[in-house]
């Protein structure tokens, strides 16, 4: 089944229906989930600063934590053939939950 998906994707690329860069940028679903949460948390943090509910210093601390999680995701993906494991995703989601609670409590 995996081979069939690769053949279909390769055929679509060959036909020009999708570009190779668009296909490559999709990433693994576990990475997408982690990175989507990080983007959402960064937006929530920025909104709190804009609303005056969080200082720039507090936001910088939270952005630093998010950046650290993102770096961890990239390192783990590089070590695992371009994707993160379920255990790594769970660990990063736990870290993101902690950061999310910090944002929520401001």
- Approximately how much beta-strand content do the residues carry? under 5%
- The count of domains is 1
Uncertain runs with pLDDT below 50, 5 residues or more?
A: 1-25
Q: What can be said about the biggest beta sheet?
A: none
Overall structural class, as computed from helix and strand content, comes to mainly alpha
Rg over CA atoms: 18 Å
Annotation, overall tally of beta strands: 0
Order of helices and strands: HHHHH
Principal-axis shape: elongated
Question: Total number of helical segments?
Answer: 5
| Cα separation of the termini | 47 Å
Can you walk through the features of this model?
- By secondary structure, this protein is mostly helical.
- It has one domain (28-104).
- Helix content is 80%, strand content 0%.
- The protein has helices spanning 2-15, 20-25, 29-50, 56-79, 86-104.
- It is elongated and about 40 Å long.
- It starts with a helix and ends with a helix.
Topology:
Blueprint: H1 2-15, H2 20-25, H3 29-50, H4 56-79, H5 86-104
Helix pairs in contact: 3-4, 3-5, 4-5
Search tags:
elongated, single chain, disordered N terminus, mainly alpha, 106 residues
Summarize the structure.
The chain is mainly alpha-helical and 106 residues long. It has five helices and no strands.
């Amino acid at each position: 089944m995996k081979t069939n998906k690769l053949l279909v994707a390769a055929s679509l690329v060959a036909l020009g229906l999708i570009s190779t860069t668009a296909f490559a940028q999709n990433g693994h679903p576990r990475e997408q989930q982690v990175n989507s949460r990080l983007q959402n948390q960064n937006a929530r943090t920025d909104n709190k600063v804009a609303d005056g509910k969080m200082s720039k210093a507090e936001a910088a601390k939270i952005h630093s934590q998010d950046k650290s999680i993102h770096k961890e995701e990239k390192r783990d993906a590089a070590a695992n053939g371009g994707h993160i494991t379920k255990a790594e995703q769970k660990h990063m989601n736990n870290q993101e939950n902690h950061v999310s609670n910090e944002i929520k409590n401001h």
